[in-house]
């Protein structure tokens, strides 16, 4: 039997969040930048995303990345991020998966004890520092593009709840951000379904009532996720907070979320809660952690912004070829509302 399409896939996860890495089989993708390539894939080859992420080959909690050569002279490699409902400009957990796969599979050379790389995401250049030992990537620290706040302490009307206090911040993706305690949540695993249901409602209200426009790029997506923030505390002298990000179509990020952590850093700095260089431990609903810092301050158009740095670890879980049989009745997969909730 000759397959209609063959993809080389490395499965991995970053702090619990699945990040498949497609290392071959996609072919040539037009575009000068990774953002251009993202737009082309979205418009011309979206069946790849559906094949890999929709059932019966994927699941609602899966993400994927397509490794592509970069045209940027500084970048060693580029990648386009695929999620179940969108093509985000940036993802911290997926970047950590990509860096780990590139080094541990030998696509790019590993230098011990530290390998430094520049990768190109759709959001721009991402500088990563990988701590390595005995052929294993032990930690990936990425320096993200600038993060900033669009709206502070806005009051949003939500059906059935009334007025909800909300911030909106960009960290590679744009987040509607709320204090979990204001809505009666402690961000515990047993609350996940309720958090997701409410998170989707909050996001819909924010999209309707709080306009955003990324400076200089009208094609950048608007508000696509909700972040529930736990109370800030001190632990061994370091700032710590729990969070969960509700990813469309309605599920919790298993990791602490790199772009959500970046947005949180921007909001914390705007509130005067953190200084550049200070360590912030961001914890997920599963208990996994990212180590975060502000590496510097900058300005993006009219917005004061921070340069976020996020560190975590990824693990390879499998190597395989994904094939599409020409007689398969589900070439672009399918979704069911039992787990693929309405986004």
List the helices and strands and how they pair.
Layout: E1 5-14, E2 17-18, E3 20-24, H1 34-44, H2 46-53, E4 64-68, E5 77-82, H3 92-104, E6 114-121, E7 124-133, E8 136-143, E9 147-158, E10 162-170, E11 174-179, H4 192-209, E12 223-229, E13 233-235, E14 238-247, E15 251-252, H5 258-271, E16 280-283, E17 289-300, E18 303-312, E19 314-324
Parallel strand pairs: 3-4, 5-6, 11-12, 14-16
Antiparallel strand pairs: 1-2, 1-3, 1-19, 4-5, 6-7, 7-8, 8-18, 9-10, 9-18, 10-11, 12-14, 13-14, 14-15, 16-17, 17-18
Keywords:
343 residues; alpha+beta; Diaminopimelate Epimerase, Chain A, domain 1; 2 domains
Q: What is the CATH superfamily of the largest domain?
A: Diaminopimelate Epimerase, Chain A, domain 1
Strand content: 35-45%
Major sheet attributes: 8 strands, mixed, barrel
Count of DSSP helices?
A: 5
Trace the largest sheet across and list its strands: 9-10-11-12-14-16-17-18
Backbone shape: globular
Tell how many strands the DSSP assignment holds.
Answer: 19
Order of secondary-structure elements: EEEHHEEHEEEEEEHEEEEHEEEE
Class of secondary structure makeup: alpha+beta
Rg (CA only): 19 Å
CATH topology group of the largest domain? Diaminopimelate Epimerase, Chain A, domain 1
Give the CATH class of the largest domain. Alpha Beta
End-to-end Cα distance, whole Å, is 38 Å
CATH architecture of the largest domain: Roll
Residue share in helix: 10-25%
Q: Extract low-pLDDT stretches.
A: none
